[in-house]
């Protein structure tokens, strides 16, 4: 791991690292926030739990770190935050031929691609679960308690990775997630290219399908703004709510009047998400 | 005034506006945060005081609004925040011939230029004091209680505009301000071009000179990181402290161990600045 940058913030540290990813066959960048207690400021350092944050279309490792306003609460609670990039990057990595914002670079959709030319590099699911998590646990003063969150495409990522790995993550939260990608334009475009035409193979990355078949129910918190331009066509939280009711999966969906798809919305409620995860991350300690 | 954008945040509103500036002879953009109480959410609206935030080199109206994490405290306290752009903009506005970051566009230094070709457009001092303040007081549900703050070049701006107008502003604060521009490379370059070679004319925009000659002492709070790359060469808070001691001007300078020149630093202490201003903005109500 190469350390690219470091900033002191709220008594803790924000830093960027890069490292080679076998899953994505390229150098990947991620950012981490370590709260003061993990740095041993003022007393002996303690291992802290980690919240993984997955960002949305067009984002990289920095959007959340610079705009969410999460560090005050994370520093107080003693929670580390890790924010990976949203796709593989580099000269060898193919992009959407039209450089569209919703596919290719910045749009990895947190899955393992099976179709050429995407399958060489676009394996964000394996990267997050099998490289980033163990790498963070090895390299930083953290413990194994992990939660996952994200926004929009990253909310989809948090839901699918969390639902598929309920023994790895204590809890899932999301802002404005793509809840039913097999049923919206963003998801259909990405899944067709990454996974091919057989829509049966898409279901393993669809939150509605995974929730319906979940054997273990870990807590889920979702916040969604009512003035979000993408609400009806792309995000479709009502589809997830319907499945949750049918499956007796208790999840909390807060519809927030007047809020949009921006980081202004995320910053308004990120503290509540941190408190939500904290009760699970510190349970039984 | 044209409304360019609007986002709900912490129950209040962040919005961008543009309007023609007579002082700068161009269209100017600014951003405003209005706390819930100024919008009348839940009860009758109340006029709120305003904190003016001046940003640093290369910034525009959005840096503070997106990265400072100020809205939680501002919403609770009931303080509006106004963040103007850092210079005139537009095709007619001249820039540094080398497009350097420290002069021309994005580097107005909050003064009135006297030298061609800058004097036509670069009149940020008049713009802030005589157009933005009255315009905001006319157009939004605010009262006349105003405070001023900023970072780096904007910290210089807050100090000089506040010190020159102690009856307009209740209080001044700054992060990492340029404290003695006549004595550092950034200031000397800008003042030579904007004001000419006669260094006597520079003193009206130098915080050390103004503090030394201040007839009315309004409260000043400064935060400065010890790991700031610009501390010794450009910012020089010790020069301001020396003048304050000689002049018996009580100001607070917090040297913050390990912090740098970034918004990670600002976000860590912006709440303290808001509380500092609140005690003055709400005094006597």
Automatic annotation (TrEMBL), chains A, B:
User: In the UniProt entry, which residues are flagged as the active site?
Assistant: 152, 228, 261
Write out the GO biological process terms: formaldehyde catabolic process
Listed name of the protein: S-formylglutathione hydrolase
Q: Which family does it belong to?
A: Belongs to the esterase D family.
MF terms (GO), sorted A to Z = carboxylic ester hydrolase activity; S-formylglutathione hydrolase activity
State a GO cellular component annotated for this protein.
Answer: cytosol
Keyword terms of this UniProt record: Hydrolase, Serine esterase
Q: What class of enzyme is it?
A: hydrolase
Record's catalysed reaction(s): S-formylglutathione + H2O = formate + glutathione + H(+)
User: Which parts form a coiled-coil structure per UniProt?
Assistant: none
Top-rank taxon:
Bacteria
| EC number of this enzyme | 3.1.2.12
Q: Which gene encodes it?
A: yeiG
Q: Which organism is it from?
A: Brumicola pallidula DSM 14239 = ACAM 615
- Spell out the InterPro entries in the cross-references: AB_hydrolase_fold, Esterase-like, S-formylglutathione_hydrol
What task does this protein carry out?
Serine hydrolase involved in the detoxification of formaldehyde.
């Amino acid at each position: 791991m190469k350390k690219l940058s470091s900033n002191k913030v709220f008594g803790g540290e924000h830093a960027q690292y890069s490292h080679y990813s076998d899953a994505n066959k390229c150098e990947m960048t991620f950012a981490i926030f370590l709260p003061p207690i993990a740095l041993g400021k003022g007393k002996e350092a303690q291992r802290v739990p980690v919240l993984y944050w997955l960002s949305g279309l067009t984002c990289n490792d920095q959007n959340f770190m610079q705009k969410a306003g999460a560090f005050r609460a994370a520093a107080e609670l003693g929670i580390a935050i890790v924010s990976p990039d949203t796709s593989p990057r580099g000269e060898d990595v193919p992009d959407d031929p039209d450089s569209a914002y919703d596919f290719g670079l910045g749009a990895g959709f947190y899955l393992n691609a099976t179709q050429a030319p995407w399958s060489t590099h676009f394996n964000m699911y394996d990267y997050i679960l099998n490289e980033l998590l163990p790498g963070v646990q090895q390299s930083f003063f953290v413990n194994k308690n992990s939660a996952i969150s994200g926004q929009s495409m990253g909310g989809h990522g948090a839901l699918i990775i969390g639902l598929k790995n309920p023994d790895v993550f204590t809890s899932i939260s999301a802002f404005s997630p793509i809840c039913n990608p097999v049923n919206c334009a963003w998801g259909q475009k990405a899944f067709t290219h990454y996974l091919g035409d057989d829509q049966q193979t898409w279901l393993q990355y669809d939150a509605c399908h995974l929730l319906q078949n979940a054997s273990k129910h870990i807590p889920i918190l979702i916040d969604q703004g009512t003035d979000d331009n993408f609400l009806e066509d792309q995000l479709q939280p009502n589809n997830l709510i319907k499945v949750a009711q049918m499956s007796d999966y208790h999840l909390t969906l807060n519809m927030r009047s007047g809020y949009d798809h921006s980081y202004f919305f995320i910053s308004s409620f990120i503290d509540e998400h941190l408190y939500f995860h904290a009760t699970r991350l510190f349970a039984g300690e």
